[in-house]
Structures are given as structure tokens and as C-alpha cells.
Write a structure and sequence with these properties.
Blueprint: H1 2-17, H2 35-44, E1 56-60, E2 65-70, E3 73-79, E4 104-113, E5 119-123, H3 128-137, E6 146-148, H4 160-163, E7 173-174, H5 177-186, E8 192-196
Parallel strand pairs: 1-8, 6-7
Antiparallel strand pairs: 1-2, 2-3, 4-5, 4-8, 5-6
């Protein structure tokens, strides 16, 4: 009974952290989630490893996998979690709050230092086609879809097997923090990301 309750608590915690934007309130934070050092690094452009840059990211939702490409070759692959309703059977994102991961071709538009979910790479969702589909249905397409790391409780990666075994975000793609560190250094603004069913 205790194990079931603790698993339920963990599932609720994952659901609550989601991936929507929350402001950083300037609290002293000496964890890897501290944003001051991260923002200084971004301002200097010091986070990019020019020898290991990638030029494309491809996601396969059904396989729960993300692949990083350089010059047409896969150089890294990562297990991912998707939106809580956005797995392979959940379909494409339709509107804000549907907890689905979008499908289509986008690009990385910026990096964000995140005090809740480690680091984030924001993608260019919604595209014009996404907006048109949403307008036709009379709904808001939503936005703020990112590739991000893990919540604070899993900063050390000990819970990766748990988090990567289920879909828990608000529509984002979550990777382990070690994978996020690699992507953070390899991705510049404008890198294409293709998200497939």
C-alpha cells in the first residue's frame, strides 16, 4: 500500500511540474537549476561547443526517441518523455492545455535557463499551419513547447528510469539532464527539429 501511495505521489509531482513557463523569483539557488550563472553563460555565448555542434534534431514519438544529427549522420540519441496525452496514440497537438506533443517541422528559437526543469530549448511551435488548424476549430493553438531536462527532484538522474517510462509533460519533450547538457552545448538558434508520430 505504501509503495502504491508513493508512486501516486511521484506521478502527481511529475504532472504538476509540466513544462509551462514560470518566472524565476530570484531566490538563492545553488543547485544545477540556478539561473544566474546559466544566463551569464548564454549572454557570453559560452555554452556552445563549436567542435560538436549539431544541425538537426529528429523525434519519433512512438519510439520515444530523439536523434541529434551532424552532416546527415546521427551523433547522439536520447530517450524522451512526451506530453501526458501526447504519446504515439495521443495524436498531434491541437490546442492549448491538451497535453499533447506537436508534430511537424520547427526550429529552435531560443534557450532558456529554467529554475524548475533544468535547461530548455524552445521550439517554434505553433507554425502558421498549426495556427490555421486551431483557428478552423475555434481554439488557441497554445505554445511554449520546449525540449527540457528533469524536474528538481530528479536533478541527479536517479529517477530517469521512472520519468522516461511515462509521458508527463504539458506537451514538451523531456530528456535526462546529462542529455540536456549535451544538447545545450551542441544547439544554436535556428537548428531544425522534426517531430514525427
Amino acid at each position: 500500500m505504501k509503495i502504491k501511495l508513493s508512486m501516486l505521489g511521484l506521478a502527481i509531482a511529475l504532472f504538476i511540474v509540466g513544462c509551462g513557463e514560470t518566472p524565476y523569483y530570484g531566490k538563492v539557488d545553488n543547485t544545477p537549476y540556478a539561473t544566474k550563472e546559466c544566463m551569464n553563460e548564454l549572454a557570453r555565448g559560452a555554452e556552445i561547443d563549436h567542435n560538436n555542434k549539431i544541425d538537426k534534431i529528429v523525434v519519433y514519438k512512438k519510439k520515444r526517441m530523439m536523434y541529434a544529427y551532424k552532416d546527415g549522420k546521427v551523433v547522439e540519441e536520447y530517450r524522451i518523455s512526451l506530453g501526458a496525452n501526447g504519446g504515439a496514440n495521443g495524436g498531434n497537438k491541437v490546442k492549448a492545455g491538451d497535453y499533447r506533443t506537436p508534430e511537424g517541422t520547427y526550429s529552435i528559437v531560443r534557450k532558456k535557463c529554467d529554475s524548475r526543469l533544468y535547461k530548455s530549448l524552445m521550439i517554434s511551435y505553433p507554425s502558421e499551419a498549426d495556427k490555421a488548424r486551431a483557428r478552423a476549430r475555434g481554439v488557441n493553438p497554445g505554445g511554449y513547447i520546449t525540449i527540457h531536462g528533469q524536474p528538481k527532484w530528479n536533478a541527479d538522474g536517479r529517477g530517469d528510469n521512472y520519468t522516461l517510462s511515462r509521458d508527463w509533460t504539458e506537451g514538451c519533450m523531456a530528456v535526462p539532464n546529462l542529455a540536456m547538457d549535451k544538447l545545450w552545448c551542441a544547439v544554436e538558434k535556428g537548428v531544425k527539429i522534426e517531430i514525427n508520430a
